[in-house]
Amino acid sequence: MVDNAWIAAALTSARPQALSALLRYFRNLDAAEEAFQEASLRAIRTWPVKGPPRDTVAWLIFVGRNCGVDALRKTRNNVALPPEEHLSDRDDAEAGIAERLDTAHYRDDILRLLFVCCHPGLPANQQIALALRVVAGLPLRQIARAFLVSEVAMEQRITRAKARIAAGNVPFDPPDAEARLERLGVVAMMIYLLFNAGYSRGHADPDAARLCDEAIRLGRLLLRLFPAEPEIMGLVALMLLQHARHRARTDAESQLVLLEDQDRTLWDGPMLAEGRALVEKALRHREPGTYQVQAAIAAQHARAKRAGDTDWGAIDRLYQTLEMFQPSPVVTLNRAVAVSKVRGPAAALALLTPLGDRLDSYFHYHGVRGGLLLQLGDTAGAREAFNRAIALAGSPAEAAHIRLHLDRLSAQPPLPPASAIN
Amino acid sequence: MLYAVLCYNDENAVATWTKEEDDACMARLAAVEDAMKAKGRLGPVARLLPTTSATTLRKTSGEPLIIDGPFAETKEQFLGFFVADCDTLDEAIQFARDLAVANPGGGAYEIRPLAIFHPSELG
Fold it and tell me: Which residues numbered 217-236 in A keep a CB inside 8 Å of some CB on B?
């Protein structure tokens, strides 16, 4: 049955492949998008009558090419047209196209489309917005909502980004192996930034959750194109394992719920299973990288049925590995949390103290530090750290979470310092 | 007579469903399953995780090849399946290796983790 919902899903699913082939053909993002749009309109008109084509992607590419060429003919008199054999009007001609488009072809096309969105001259949030609009085909309205800006502002942002790309050189030559790997890394980073744009907002907000869904969808797309790249497996696994917890991450009042306090029955079982399966696949390659290690850490949390079952020793070791790949005070901060579980708050605090200069303006640093000081009985120090954290909070949910600690502090009589107890 | 009913669809399209759409589809399918279940005539039901989570063991004349991704040939047909409870992917691959030793020659075993599994209602 070909109803509207089926067609909508088929068009969304076909979009990256069809659009990227049209981009290779027209070498212009706007022309490719218009051609895809026109082909989609024709699909909506003809598929319910004639039935869907055998290969929807090939049909859209074929019809899109013809529409695009017609449009070019109308607007310009002297246009170098593509070879005539590609422009047949026969209905079944998409079958031939389908045969010519093997996976390798698709792969470089789609990677190019994603890579074009990652133009180094564009700020990260523009890269992400562009990928959502162009590759995922998300309506402007939704992207604007997800980024908390007006539709007009988002349209301007995307138009500017496209102008920037049009002015530069789109790399149309097929990449060699090294260039391909480089593009893959850039695109993977953009997808992870997209995911984090949603994740950092908390998932009580369905628009933010949508960003995470789209990031996972793009990640899976990339993984289908590069099925043997362990870092891409790691990236998709990492996003799945984090997103699987989204219903447990905020409570009914939109307050953040810490991992150890989450109701683990709210975690999405199949999503966790998929993430863990990908981590295992990736680790078999023995080519670790930052996404894989982060995913392995998330998988350790996912394995624990109760917070108390968490293997913090394994997590500490994984963070040490991550520190080697990606030395950063934020990684050490995370490791300190694991260390506090294995060796106690004093050992964790010792790890944190040298980071003070670099993380002084970082919300989580003061939040974690406050928690550790509290465990050590230093209420005055904890209060000061929590106050600092609130001042730096990036969202109301973050601030509210820290305020909870402060409220608890006020309700308790101050404890003597830990050293006095021992 | 026992019949296996195998599900085929465009997984890209299915992946564009929202959680609500997916849940609604699962609920409609569950209603059909329940009718068979009530008659005691439903065997195991499984939903597979996406093909990106698959690993394929391809039989060769020597050591089998372990390939990332799903089984992709079209000149071979789907002939049967096993469901095994394994702690690790390595265990599952070893199981497939044992199967390949028992049944050498052509073909492949695709190893796909399950998203959902309902055990058989049959006696």
Answer: 217, 220-221, 223-224, 227-228, 233, 236
